[in-house]
Each structure stands twice: as C-alpha cells, then as structure tokens.
Amino acid sequence: MLLVQTGANGSQGTWSVQDFEPMLAYVTERGQMTKPLFDTMLFLPYGSVQDTEQGLSAYLQDLFAPGKQLSALNQAVAVVNQALHRPGYQEKVVLSLPYFAYGLIDFGAVDGKDVQFDGGSGDPNGLAGREQAETWYVHQLLDDWKKADFKNLKLVGFYWNEEQYRQTMPGEAPYIQFASALAKANNLPLFWIPYYGAGGVWQWQSLGFTAAWIQPNFVEQGQQADLARMTNATETASRLGLGVEVELTGIDVEHQAVYDSSLAQLSADGYGTGEASHAYYDGSKLLLTSERSQGSERIAYDTTASFIAGVGIHGGS
Fold first, then answer.
1. 240-255 burial: b if 16+ Cβ within 10 Å, else e
2. How far is CA 280 from CA 238, 263, 277, in A?
3. Residue 155 bridge partners (DSSP)
4. pLDDT tens across 184-195, in order?
5. Are the C-beta atoms of 248 and 282 separated by less than 8 Å?
6. Is the pLDDT of residue 315 over 70?
7. Which of 20, 52, 222, 238 is the most buried (most CB within 10 A)?
C-alpha cells in the first residue's frame, strides 16, 4: 500500500495518469511494464490541509477532480491492465478520515449550524461536535465516491489520519470508536499507521482499528540509524499482529544505504514481502522521482520493486 499525499504543494501533491503508471507496475529503464507493483493506494491530505469544513471541502474537490488524483489513478489502471494483460483488475483504494482534535474552536457550518470542538455548550469533551463533523465528512466522501463511479478502483477501507492515541485528550477513546463504528456502518474497515512508540499501539484493536502498521521511523535518522530500531519494530509487530511501514526519505547514495539496511533487516526478521503486509511512505513522490532518474538515484525504485516481488535485499548490519 503506497501513501499518496494530495491537496497541497502544487505539482508534488498532484498525481497524473503518467505518475501512477510506474507505481502500479514496474517500468524498466527502457519504458516497458513488466510486473505489478503496488496493489493498494492510500490517499491522504498533506498536513497543511485545514481540518475545517472549508479546508476539507476543497480537499475533496481536488481529490475527485477530473484528470488527476483518483480520476488519474482510474485511468492509469486501465493502461496498466492492458500492458500486463489483466482485464478486469481493480486497484484497491483506502481513503482518509480526518482527525478533529479537541479544542479546535470553529470547524464551520454543518447543516446550517456552527460546529465547534472546544467542549462548550453542554459538550464537555467536544465529542458531539467531532462526531457531527466526522459524519458530515464521511457522507460527503462516500457521496463523491459513488458519483465518480470509478470502474477500475475498489474502495477497501478508511484510514485514521492521526498517528497516535492521545490518551489524556478529553473524549479520545469514544471518538475513535465512533469513527470505527461509522466505517463499519458503511461496510468498511478502519486502518491506522502509528509512529514508533506512539500511545495506543498496544490497544489498537480495542480502540476500534481493524488493521494497523507500525512506523519504525528508522531511515530518517540517517547514518546514525541503529538497526535495533527495526528489530524492535518487527518484534512489536509480531507480538501485536501489526504490519510494518517501509520508509524512504531520500534517493541519494547515503539515503539508499540506510534504506537498503531497513529492507534487509525486515527480511531477516521475517517481515519481507509474502510474510507481512507493508505500507510504503516515500515522502512526496520519491519513488516516482527515482523511476525517472538514471544511475544511483534509480536504485531506490529498483530496490523497492525487488522487495515487493519478494527478491531478497542484502544490506548493511
């Protein structure tokens, strides 16, 4: 599952048909598609997208706009299906649910009424306001999805767009459980990708999540990264029934060395492809940039494709 960020940052947050093609299928340096790559796309907003009625309405408008984002993915799947001779294949899609933090003063108007999350007006935990906003968003999202009628895409879940459980935040547990129930009411699971050491990891199932992936947060440490972090993450994943996020933060030689080490350690710990589920974070289109590069900068794309295909990765330890 590849994380696809949209809704801001100009060209970095705008995905075209040509952008998606090498993410759906491995493309050789000569431009030939040879095998499937990512089978699931997780669409989530950049952090700069405001969690307000106005901000989220604009995000949805962009997400469902013709010729880009979801529409572009739908078209790209058709192209790849023809190239790989797989008629009828549908790419799986996961869409994000916003996290509304307690204390946000003014969300905006829903059904003609101003919604706030500050705990006032008989709503001490800001819970009723957050639930109202979440319900509004899910209805808007699913209505847009139904109208779009993407023939080559299949909606398979929602993603909770908050990387930790804030235990001390008023109303937090019932709010997450409400979102989970809202997803289930629409016959969809709720997914989660907490960061390394985040609150709530040990309670992920009781909080209401259907599946979760842990972030090792290893590669961003650069040359100072300790492989014990990767092993600790896989041990936690094994103990708690989690998948693991694969993370790429750069495509130069130094970043590649750390990335190779993380993939090698995942394989050594029994978390290679075929043994575990992976979510992939690549910043803003780093894998796409790598695919379009030559020499050492293309290695990140090739290495990722090899890992997904189940080919062993041998790195430093």
1. eebbbbbbbbbbeeeb
2. 18, 12, 10
3. 93
4. 999 999 999 999
5. yes
6. no
7. 20
